[in-house]
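User: what does the whole thing look like in 3D?
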Amino acid sequence: MSEAKKYPAPVTNPETAAFWDAASRGKFMIKRCTACGEAHYFPRSICPFCYSDKTVWEEASGEGTIYTWSLMRKSPTGPYAIGYVTLKEGPSVQTNFVDCDLEKLKIGQKVKVVFKPTDGAPLPFFTPA
Amino acid sequence: MTIKGKAYIAGIFEHPTRHAPDKSTAQLHAEVAKGAIEDAGLSKDDVDGYFCAGDAPGGAWPMVDYLGLNTKKLRHVDSTETGGCSYIIHLGHAAEAIAAGRCSIALITLAGKPRTGAMPPRAAGAEADFESAYGATTHNAYGMCAMRHMHDYGTTSEQLAWIKVAASHHAQYNPHAMLKDVVTVEDVLNSPMISDPLHRMDCCVVSDGGGALIVTTPEIAKSLKKPLVKLIGHGEAMKGPRGGKDLDLTYSAGIWSGPRAFAEAGITPQDIKYASIYDSFTITVLMQLEDLGFCKKGEGGKFVADGNLISGVGKLPFNTDGGGLCSNHPVNRGGMTKIIEAVRQLRGEAHPKVQVKNCDLAIAHGTGGLLGVRHAASTAILERV
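Assistant: Here's the predicted 3D structure for the full assembly of 514 residues, as structure tokens:
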């Protein structure tokens, strides 16, 4: 399936470097605003909800459920399943589902984060829990 | 302040080509510009406003120069880029500029050749590192919307298929349509799955081509020879995952652009006689019809079934040129052709087999970007005077 797939290395930037550093250590990070309490993803310095700059990094459980998905069957690199996972902590994140039977994915299914290597920092994906 | 009745669409032109390997993209822009200016009965030297989006080679200033527009006269430009609905947004912005006295004859062009060669990738946003590796394309981004819509509301592939069936009924009368064969629900369901739950026939065509509009003041429009079509309401909006909070892919930014346009026009969806609805995919149409208020959220499947979108058969004739699903989808952007067919209907210039009787109120609505990721929407309500 997707084991041979080569993923692009994140470019990274000063705002998101800490996410990728943590990913290299196997940790999946989200940002939380200490002013309004809301978590968000992908990470920003300024809270997209209340515009406070008091956002802090938080290690997420890496657990969530499938919000939606679609199996892309016509692709030069082979079939892949894109989707959104709603994390236990609240935010929904875009991802691919890997290491499973892509025909059997279901909305509401429990999944967990798994990292895949690139030439740079590893990228987060999700697989059935 | 309102733009209601402040601007008229006086010229339209849709390029007849669907495959143009022998032409340049700038040339297609010039051909559609010439077509719309001539349709209005004007000269290029009359144009004092120019609108284009990301498909215009080099952007506004190289295009103004290439098109030979009268730079002593040209006093307003707008290169708002919102994907496929850019041109519906341009229409509203042109009306704003005309209402404010910033220009009096606005030209809007769209053209390009995705069928001849792949389009350049769009510039990356701040989300790139967190999304680009996952391969979101139009097919799977709209597939994700359809999947969730089916989950939440019980929408079926059969119901989606009716949208393609209706488009094909109209396309059989369009000599320029890429796909002229009438298809059935079974044909759609039996076409190969592209990105679950969307089949090949749930997807629009890929075509070269383009289109252009002339938007002008009521006074100038009345001095010209074409039937009068005025803009009476306009809305634009954007939507994205917004940090991942309360993600809901079953509605689009049309839920905001639509009511804005209807409120300005002072009419309701029930008053609309003809609807041009961007049909990048069947699910795009179904969600837009709900968002615009033609039916309740979740009831789009029932609304589109059994030929309800077929001219002369159903309650809401849509995309009577065959739309993106059957006729064309120039530059992978459907907004321009949606306006053009709405104007044809209001002028009484649609094919007699699909012309809506007494068509006095029409809507042209589109989205741009990826409905399942982040996108824009724009709604225009047009009235025959």
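In plain terms: The longest strand of chain B covers residues 229-239. The mean pLDDT of chain B is 97.
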